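Support request from a user on the community tier.

User writes: "When I paste my structure tokens into the form, the page sometimes reloads and wipes my input. The last time it worked, I copied everything first. Here is what I submitted, just in case something in the input itself triggers the reload:"
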């Protein structure tokens, strides 16, 4: 999250340059007094005046192999909270907004069945109440640009305080507890009292249902204050000392990682047992980093190469970009993990550099040559190239899942059918359609002028709203929707492609079988927590390690019934946990559906998809670990017959 700022560059200031010039002159000793009296006060005054009228920007800096997240900001704002405009009024408003997030309503000491309010909803409520009338007044009174800018900056700071405190709730709770002696602190939802209380020495913590409203409000205020310090100073050493003082003699690495990076304890424990300490520490650090902006070229609307699209983006939208294949050729993308540890713990673990980058995968504002990412000149959704349908925003790892289908274009007079079984909002559906059109088809029109190759794509999901969103994007992507039949169509060159949505009843009634079925199953999202930071506090141990794997197995078995003889089945999640990944794949492979259907594993080595051989384990499975260039995913693939 960035706030409007002006970077104060001391080295380029006029007083500072004059200062260096005078120090280098032959009359240096005679001018020391003049420097002290005139130049230095002028330099200080310039810096203070410049800073007081601006705000800070949080720059995420590249980290070394073992380092944790660091933030580079101007040194002058590190010691003065008021100058950074984390003022008491905003902090108080943020704490009040977070009260129902951390301490939902309860009855008779138990949580009600009402779902707790999320931090995002709490922020929306506050902004609507605080700014809707003010913005209307500004429009009525012809407010100046500076007045509107100030209001937008205030909104941004509130968003950082509310969303950031919510995400980092475990860390800030522990630090606030350690900083306030032996007081009794209510435990914010959904932190687990049974898991945490044994580790806190003699410092008492209590269930939030047994605390007063004043105690709950007090801990909210303290946690918001800690987050304001955290984003300004990033004094990790001092905060980690506070954490250790509260934990006492505890040397539980899972607990320490969970608190330091503010993730559920069960998640830290699971990752440690499955990936090892160094890998887990890196994974936890990346969960609190901003992810890359990656796009996928839409071959329906843009017929040029990846390099030509990058050129178009620069010339028309002012955005720098680079094809992922070029980044892989220029940099070693494997350095953020201990590969020896991966060999010991994660047989199918890969990083981006070990996979063949999909065609059309492009990174926006890549942090190459040791330089950080630049701020986009405009919203990505407002770019003319996006509005023309030239690209979709899609993570590189997600694009790899579609590439794992190994789609070949339909031959002369032939056809291919693809089912996106858990389509969501259609990201992979549209990636499939683009992949079909991105291949040269050697076919000719028949005597009536009709195209002879056909690709049929069906998107299925259990949530009707998601299917409606897919239909809403069809025109921009390049399809014409026949509202009478509900079937969209795109005809180019020698290919006719249809796309339609279907619920389970429609899918089952059709008796249609498919050449390729993609199952992007619902999961814990542990591989994409930096994209969905609040998700970490919505997942429970029971749901993640038991309920979800059962649901995922049920889904893949149902999806397998739609694969035709000789067809392909890909199972994927955006989870890092074996319970949702390898364990589900093993259960499927032992099932009657697998045996009776004649399914066999389809190794990635057969089509050169993976450049690095497996360290150990199954060659038809890949765990793509999060990195600076991609999010975390798992996918396994099979062939029928």
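"...and here is what came back when it finally went through:"
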């Amino acid at each position: 999250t960035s706030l409007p700022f002006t970077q104060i560059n001391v080295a380029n200031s006029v007083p500072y340059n004059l200062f260096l010039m005078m120090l280098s002159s032959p009359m240096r000793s005679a001018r020391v007094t003049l420097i002290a009296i005139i130049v230095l006060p002028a330099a200080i005054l310039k810096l203070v005046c410049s800073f007081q009228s601006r705000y800070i920007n949080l720059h995420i800096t590249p980290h070394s192999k073992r380092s944790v997240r660091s933030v580079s900001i101007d040194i002058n704002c590190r010691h003065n909270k008021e100058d950074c405009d984390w003022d008491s009024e905003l902090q108080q408003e943020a704490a009040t907004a977070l009260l129902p997030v951390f301490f939902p309503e309860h009855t008779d000491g138990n949580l009600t069945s009402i779902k707790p309010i999320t931090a995002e909803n709490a922020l929306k409520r506050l902004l609507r109440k605080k700014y809707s009338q003010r913005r209307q007044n500004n429009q009525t009174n012809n407010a100046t640009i500076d007045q509107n800018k100030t209001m937008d900056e205030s909104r941004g700071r509130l968003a950082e305080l509310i969303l950031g405190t919510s995400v980092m709730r475990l860390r800030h709770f522990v630090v606030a507890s350690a900083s306030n002696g032996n007081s009794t602190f209510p435990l914010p939802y959904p932190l687990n009292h049974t898991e945490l209380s044994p580790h806190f020495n003699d410092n008492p913590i209590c269930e939030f249902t047994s605390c007063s409203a004043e105690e709950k409000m007090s801990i909210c205020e303290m946690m918001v204050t800690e987050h304001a310090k955290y984003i300004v100073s990033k004094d990790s050493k001092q905060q980690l000392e506070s954490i250790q003082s509260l934990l006492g003699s505890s040397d539980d690495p899972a607990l320490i990682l969970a608190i330091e990076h503010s993730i559920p304890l069960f998640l830290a424990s699971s990752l440690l047992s499955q990936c090892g300490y160094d890998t887990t520490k890196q994974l936890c650090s990346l969960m609190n980093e901003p992810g890359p902006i990656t796009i996928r070229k839409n071959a329906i609307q843009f017929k040029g190469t990846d390099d030509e699209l990058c050129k178009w983006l620069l010339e028309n939208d002012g955005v720098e970009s680079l094809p992922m294949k070029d980044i892989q050729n220029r940099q070693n993308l494997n350095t953020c993990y201990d590969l020896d540890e991966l060999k010991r713990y994660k047989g199918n673990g890969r990083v981006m550099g070990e996979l063949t980058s999909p065609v059309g995968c492009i990174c926006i504002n890549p942090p190459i040559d040791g330089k950080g990412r630049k701020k986009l000149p405009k919203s990505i959704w407002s770019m003319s190239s996006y509005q023309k349908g030239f690209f979709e925003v899609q993570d590189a790892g997600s694009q790899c899942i579609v590439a794992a289908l190994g789609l070949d274009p339909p031959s002369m007079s032939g056809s291919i059918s693809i089912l996106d079984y858990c389509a969501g909002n259609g990201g992979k559906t549209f990636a499939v359609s683009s992949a079909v059109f991105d291949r040269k088809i050697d076919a000719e029109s028949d005597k009536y002028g009709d195209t002879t190759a056909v690709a049929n794509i069906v998107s299925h999901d259990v949530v009707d709203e998601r299917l409606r969103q897919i239909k809403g994007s069809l025109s921009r992507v390049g399809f014409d929707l026949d509202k009478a039949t509900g079937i969209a169509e795109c005809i180019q060159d020698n290919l006719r492609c249809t796309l339609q949505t279907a619920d389970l009843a429609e899918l089952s009634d059709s008796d249609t079988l498919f050449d390729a079925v993609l199952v992007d199953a619902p999961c814990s999202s542990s591989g994409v927590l930096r994209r969905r930071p609040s998700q970490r506090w919505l997942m429970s141990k029971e749901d993640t390690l038991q309920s979800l794997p059962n649901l995922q197995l049920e889904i893949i078995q149902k999806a397998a019934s739609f694969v035709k003889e000789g067809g392909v089945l890909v199972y994927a999640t955006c989870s890092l946990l074996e319970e949702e990944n390898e364990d589900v794949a093993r259960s499927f492979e032992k099932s009657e559906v697998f045996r009776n259907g004649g399914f066999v594993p389809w190794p990635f080595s057969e089509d050169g998809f993976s450049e690095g051989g497996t360290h150990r384990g199954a060659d038809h499975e890949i765990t793509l670990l999060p990195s600076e260039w991609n999010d975390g995913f798992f996918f396994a693939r099979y062939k029928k017959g």
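Agent notes: The reload is a front-end session timeout and is unrelated to the input. The two ends are 50 Å apart (CA to CA). The chain is about 40% helix and 15% strand. Escalated to web team.
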